[in-house]
Amino acid sequence: MRYDLVVIGTGPGGYVCAIRAAQLGLKTAVVEKRATQGGTCLNVGCIPSKALLHASEMFAAAAHDLPALGVKVGKPELDWAAMGKHRDDTVAANVNGVAYLFKKNKVDAFHGLGTIKGPGIVEVAKEDGSVETIETTSIVIATGSEVSTLPGMPVDEKTVVSSTGALVLSEVPKRMIVIGAGVIGLELGSVYRRLGAEVEVVEYLDRILPGLDGEVAKTFHRMLEKQGFAFHLGQKVSKVEPTNAGASVTFAPVAGGEERRLDADVVLVATGRRPNTDGLGLEAAGVATERGRVVIDDHFQTNVPGIYAIGDVVRGLMLAHKAEDEGVAVAEILAGQAGHVNYGVIPAVVYTMPEIASVGATEEELKTAGIPYTAGKFPYTANGRARAMRHTEGFVKVLAHAETDRVLGVHIIAAGAGELIQECSVLMEFGGSAEDLARTCHAHPTMSEAVKEAAMAVDKRAIHV
Ligand code: NAI
Prior knowledge:
Elements: E1 2-8, H1 12-23, E2 28-32, H2 39-44, H3 46-64, H4 80-104, E3 108-111, E4 113-118, E5 121-125, E6 131-141, E7 145-147, E8 160-161, H5 163-166, E9 175-179, H6 183-194, E10 198-202, H7 214-226, E11 230-232, E12 235-242, E13 247-253, E14 260-264, E15 266-269, E16 273-275, H8 282-285, E17 289-290, E18 293-294, E19 307-309, H9 320-334, E20 348-350, E21 355-360, H10 363-369, E22 373-379, H11 384-388, E23 395-401, E24 407-414, H12 417-429, H13 434-438, H14 449-458
Parallel strand pairs: 1-2, 1-6, 2-3, 6-19, 8-15, 9-10, 9-15, 10-11
Antiparallel strand pairs: 4-5, 5-6, 7-16, 12-13, 13-14, 17-18, 20-21, 21-24, 22-23, 23-24
Bound molecules: 1,4-dihydronicotinamide adenine dinucleotide.
1,4-dihydronicotinamide adenine dinucleotide is lined by residues 150, 179-185, 187, 202-205, 210, 237, 270-273, 318-319, 348-351.
Pfam family, one: Pyr_redox_dim
Family: Belongs to the class-I pyridine nucleotide-disulfide oxidoreductase family.
Cofactor: FAD
């Protein structure tokens, strides 16, 4: 068996890369150690969490929002098993979809742990103990990332859980402590808060959602408190221990001070992820890594010719769509085309309620870089559609270069922000200005009019505020 390309790992980076390569005529195979395709994102990440986020949002809306719209449904009852079935059905449809796409595109799928034996040779250790060797011209490492736990926080996936265990809890906990106020902590914390759990978040930094625009994060912090979240910021966790009723978390102020201990039924450790290179044989193959990440050049090639890497295992944001775009780019490069990723325009979305979506630079980044900018802001309280839907929380902020008017960043906190941000990405991809956005006719009444108005506000000419 000889292939043009073998992709190791079939998460969003790997499977998209394999399909694009096959489209371009490369004889392609994938190696995946999980029983199903789709990696963390489809099996135990983005997809199941969005199924639970949507279902729990509907549960909360039935209790709190529908009566005000004149829809009486009585006190909603949780059917946790049915919600779990929705999560599992969603995952199954997605992972089976990838398997179907492999067949359709004639991508051969090998199941087992892939190890690079040298340039052009991948060994697959199968579950039945047998080993198969595949020969190939190129190899793309797309092995993603895994939960990075900290010493003193032993995860058993029952009472002390990572994001993986948090998706399949046997019941909704009465009390949940989340360690880390990042994306995973706030998304999964939201699921259980909406279903009735008391949720307390312990965070090392003195803010939530590091990396996001400061004003957005501050606004969201207040919104989450209104939803019943409790935060302990600037706190260093020293240990997590199992107790009779669940687990306890001990922490103290980073700046020094007295230690505190909180007890809960479930503790979610959401303190980040690390690149997954276990068993890949990188050292033996001579592939260089830096702080755990595979080092690549501008064309995704490692220091070993013929071995490439993309996604969470390399530098940059650990986001599924960044990995997908890298997968397409490297496939095109291997097929002799000019694959390319614009890292300046990678949107990021936090799928909470309201959602947070951003693309481009934050105000803090522009200030640090000394780039002169003008901010245009528009609140959802002034948007007709938002009022009709009772989704008036939040705002849009457009940041444009003070001299050229080119849009440098957009930050949205609002219901449906994840969809609203995409027009801003397209605008930025084409190097558009705030005026371009402001002069583009937006349908009325839509939530997207707030994006247009924020662009108008850059020039201090918003109509509705
Ligand atoms: P994260 O890096 O977003 O947040 C981790 C948080 O934990 C940070 O605020 C950090 O300061 C805090 N922290 C670290 N050590 C701590 C300690 N000992 N005590 C208290 N706090 C501590 O990581 P997270 O949420 O685990 O997500 C992992 C990756 O997955 C991220 O790269 C994220 O972008 C990605 N992801 C993206 C999603 C999305 O785009 N919607 C959804 C879920 C994950």
